[in-house]
């Protein structure tokens, strides 16, 4: 049995989850995957990256309209039959296969994309959810995106709905609920860097890392 381990990190928009994940992965010396999974899934399947971008963290709606409701002449020959229909479910399966393959080859940290559910049978995993107070999230988004507080609240609400519906649909668990994860933490209490240190300490103890 190898010594590879995985950290699966769920996050609220504006909580600093991605930054926390990047710093944590760097501190631990493991691979970090967020949007990179889209490129890898595209290469693995021979499908255009645009398909995965449009379906990214969106729950299935059956066959989708637009690009997703048609047959694809863009599929690399031999990858999938030309008469295949692709739904978000199909793309989720491809991306899930990529996540599993990566976790078999190395220790890594995955941000979102139901990685905790996809890797639920992995023998060495730590599932973490990062939240933050509404005000802290708004402040981060207004600075990062140069938008008003009202616009930040609107974006937050939409992102929470999208991520929760995606996660709940594919995992049969509840996004953001304490019982779903090994650790839930509010990054606005300790700040980004101390949150990273707290999670790192927890992960090391849970997975018995040196």
UniProtKB/TrEMBL annotation:
Pfam families: Cytidylate_kin2. This is Cytidylate kinase. It comes from Phocaeicola salanitronis (strain DSM 18170 / JCM 13657 / CCUG 60908 / BL78) (Bacteroides salanitronis). The lineage of its organism: Bacteria, Pseudomonadati, Bacteroidota, Bacteroidia, Bacteroidales.
């Amino acid at each position: 049995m190898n010594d590879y381990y995985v950290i699966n990190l769920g996050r609220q928009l504006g909580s600093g989850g991605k930054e926390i994940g990047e710093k944590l992965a760097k501190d631990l010396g493991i691979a970090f995957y967020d949007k990179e999974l889209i490129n890898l899934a595209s290469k693995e399947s021979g499908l255009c990256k645009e398909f995965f971008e449009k379906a990214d963290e969106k729950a299935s709606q059956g066959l989708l309209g637009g690009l997703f409701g048609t047959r694809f002449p863009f599929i690399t020959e031999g990858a999938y039959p030309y008469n295949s229909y692709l739904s978000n479910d199909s793309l989720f399966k491809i991306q899930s296969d990529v996540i599993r393959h990566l976790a078999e080859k190395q220790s890594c940290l995955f941000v979102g994309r139901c990685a905790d559910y996809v890797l639920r049978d992995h023998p060495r995993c730590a599932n973490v959810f990062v939240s933050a107070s509404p005000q802290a999230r708004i402040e981060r988004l207004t600075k990062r995106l140069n938008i008003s507080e009202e616009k930040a609240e609107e974006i937050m609400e939409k992102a929470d709905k999208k991520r929760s519906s995606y996660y709940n649909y594919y995992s049969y668990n509840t996004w953001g609920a304490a019982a779903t994860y090994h650790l839930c933490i509010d990054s606005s209490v300790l700040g980004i860097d101390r949150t990273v240190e707290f999670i790192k300490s927890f992960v090391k103890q849970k997975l018995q890392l040196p």
